């Protein structure tokens, strides 16, 4: 006897069609997700390509300006043009001046490492001090000559030119500026910075703030003090700081519109105000000279940089830097055994 099917049995084809439609919808959602991811990745790749092109364009402009102004062309740039750009962990520029030859020589002899000493030219280009630097550079090959007129009140301009030139010459994760009267442990510095490689916009140093220097009679007087109010914003002290490639590129691309204040560390901090920058305060970058850095080294917490705050560097550097190194320096094998 033929009987009518149950309602649930009749509904099964519709149920199957519903499930099929649901699966089709899920597949479409998955395709849409993949397409969105592809689009996102494509945008990221495009952004990176544009950033690289901006860096190359800025580098070309920097070098063109050097050509037009008659500045010497770095041997590193000539080499990079012929062999291609290698990736470095960090570029260390030691800020030096025409009066600091003894300190440069002592650092080179005692550390045994070729370092780039950053220097511009005198107001009278080609004068006796320029010729002396050129002779020293021919002998040691450790200078980075800038298209910049040397002068104490021109340190902000020098800092800007240094980063723009360095990012044009070397493809590095970090660009470091250090004064020539500061003791630096290179391996320790490298280990500190290597932990931040995955972060795109890093600005690290010993962050500080304090009263704005509005008295004309004091050192580091800031003529534009009224812009800051009563206190400076937080910024890295000028003895040593490091910035990642993206920030060095930003300075290079925008160097003609970045305002220069008298104090270069204030200028650098001001350039990053309003940007999506990660400020990292690391006190290992500003230890005191012995006994401070000595005690920390004995405790296994080696300092990356040491100096005397009262002198804004190591007091009587030529006479004292060897003693600081003996008590606070990392082992001779540290640099070669370090894993960055």
UniProtKB/TrEMBL annotation:
Q: Where are the transmembrane segments?
A: none
User: Methyltransferase as a keyword?
Assistant: no
Please list the cofactors this protein needs: Mn(2+)
The UniProt record lists the EC number as 2.4.1.-
Q: Name one GO cellular component term.
A: Golgi membrane
Biochemical pathway: Protein modification; protein glycosylation
Location in the cell reads: Golgi apparatus membrane
Q: Print the keywords alphabetically.
A: Glycosyltransferase, Golgi apparatus, Manganese, Membrane, Signal-anchor, Transferase, Transmembrane, Transmembrane helix
Q: What is its main location?
A: Golgi
Superkingdom of this protein's organism? Eukaryota
What the entry lists under Pfam families is as follows:
DUF4094, Galactosyl_T
Composition bias, Basic and acidic residues: 12-21
Give a GO molecular function annotation for the protein. galactosyltransferase activity
Name of the molecule in the record: Hexosyltransferase
Its membrane topology is listed as: Single-pass type II membrane protein
Sequence ranges assigned to domain DUF4094 in this UniProt record: 1-62
Where are the stretches annotated Disordered? 1-21
Concerning its family, UniProt says: Belongs to the glycosyltransferase 31 family.
The answer to whether keyword Transmembrane applies is yes
Xref: PANTHER family: BETA-1,3-N-ACETYLGLUCOSAMINYLTRANSFERASE, HEXOSYLTRANSFERASE
């Amino acid at each position: 006897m033929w009987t009518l099917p149950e309602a649930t049995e009749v509904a099964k084809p519709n149920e199957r069609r519903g499930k099929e439609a649901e699966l089709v919808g899920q597949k479409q959602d998955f395709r849409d997700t993949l397409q969105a991811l592809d689009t996102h990745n494509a945008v990221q790749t495009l952004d990176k390509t544009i950033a690289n092109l901006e860096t190359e364009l800025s580098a070309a402009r920097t070098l063109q300006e050097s050509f037009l102004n008659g500045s010497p062309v770095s041997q590193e740039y000539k080499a990079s043009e012929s062999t291609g750009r290698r990736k470095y962990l960090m570029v260390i520029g030691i800020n030096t001046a025409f009066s600091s030859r003894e300190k440069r020589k002592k650092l080179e002899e005692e550390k045994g490492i070729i370092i780039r000493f950053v220097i511009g030219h005198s107001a009278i280009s080609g004068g006796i001090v320029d010729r002396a630097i050129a002779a020293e550079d021919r002998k040691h090959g450790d200078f980075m000559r800038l298209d910049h007129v040397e002068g104490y009140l021109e340190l902000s301009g020098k800092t800007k030119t240094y980063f723009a030139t360095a990012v044009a010459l070397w493809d590095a994760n970090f660009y470091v500026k250090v004064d020539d009267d500061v003791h630096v442990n290179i391996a320790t510095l490298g280990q500190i910075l290597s932990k931040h490689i995955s972060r795109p916009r890093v600005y690290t140093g010993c962050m500080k703030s304090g009263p704005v220097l509005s008295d004309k009679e004091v050192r580091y007087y800031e003529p534009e003090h009224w812009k800051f109010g009563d206190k400076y914003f937080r910024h890295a002290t000028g003895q040593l700081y490091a910035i990642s490639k993206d920030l060095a590129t930003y300075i290079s691309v925008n160097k003609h519109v970045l305002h220069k204040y008298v104090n270069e560390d204030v200028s650098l901090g001001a350039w990053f105000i309003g940007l999506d920058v990660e400020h990292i305060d690391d006190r290992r970058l500003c230890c005191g000279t012995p006994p401070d850095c000595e005690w920390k080294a004995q405790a296994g917490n080696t300092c990356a940089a040491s100096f005397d705050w009262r002198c804004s560097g190591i007091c009587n550097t030529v006479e004292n830097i060897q003693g600081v190194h003996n008590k606070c320096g990392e082992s001779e094998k540290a640099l070669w055994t370090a894993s960055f």
